[in-house]
User: Which sequence fits this backbone?
């Protein structure tokens, strides 16, 4: 399985896959420990997993401090470790702020996974510092999957003139969850940036960024997406 993700690029250069913090969205209601273990197995990870909050209770500042203490020992460990925070969407705002440091700069030999369910809310600053992966279950084994909205959106952005205005209104209505829509916009932006065979205009990139900013401010999902899609379609028709 391959991942092409520009979120792995930072000011100091390339960050190896294992060093990247991951925001892992799991199917609603699955048991965290078994689902994350399946993900790690699929990823080919040989690291030692350590679960924090596997029962899905509220993640407090105290638990985050415990995580930070554990990560300090990981710096001296010779074997790679994976630290998993389950139900990260239950994390209090002070605890999310405390998580930022380790999310931004995981210790050597350490991978951090923040596990959650679809549609849950986190601080935008925390989300933006993670590599986002959405997983679905198929035959009792999670497989990497893009939401259907993401595939439809990518097709439109590559060839906007092929879509009618009524089709775009229908497409905008498929986006119903703010958090998931933000994830889709970030993911599609990274995919388009990495795909040299399917270039998009700077206008498209600015439109996606404007829509993402509006959603981060809790803008109406349907109206934000309608405005974004129709604006891109109109610009394509005028060129």
Assistant:
């Amino acid at each position: 399985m391959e991942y092409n993700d520009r979120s792995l690029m930072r000011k100091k250069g390339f960050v190896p896959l294992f060093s990247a913090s991951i925001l892992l969205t799991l199917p609603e209601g699955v048991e965290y420990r078994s689902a994350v273990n399946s993900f790690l197995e699929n990823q080919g990870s040989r690291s030692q997993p350590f679960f924090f909050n596997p029962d899905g209770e509220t993640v407090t500042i105290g638990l985050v401090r415990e995580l930070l203490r554990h990560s300090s020992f990981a710096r001296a460990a010779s074997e790679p470790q994976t630290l998993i925070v389950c139900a990260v969407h239950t994390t209090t705002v002070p605890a999310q702020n405390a998580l930022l440091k380790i999310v931004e700069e995981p210790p050597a030999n350490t991978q951090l996974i923040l596990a959650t369910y679809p549609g849950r809310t986190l601080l935008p600053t925390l989300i933006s510092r993670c590599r986002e992966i959405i997983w679905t279950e198929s035959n009792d084994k999670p497989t990497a999957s893009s939401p259907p909205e993401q595939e439809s959106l990518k097709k439109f952005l590559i060839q906007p003139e092929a879509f009618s205005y009524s089709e775009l209104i229908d497409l905008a209505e498929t986006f119903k969850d703010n958090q998931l829509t933000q994830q889709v916009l970030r993911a599609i932006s990274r995919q388009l940036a990495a795909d040299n065979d399917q270039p998009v205009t700077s206008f498209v990139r600015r439109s996606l960024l404007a829509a993402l900013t509006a959603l981060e401010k809790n803008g109406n999902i349907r109206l934000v997406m309608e405005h974004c899609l129709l604006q891109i379609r109109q610009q394509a028709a005028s060129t």
Notes: Residues 193 and 221 are 24 Å apart (CA to CA). DSSP finds nine helices and eight strands in the chain. The two ends are 38 Å apart (CA to CA).
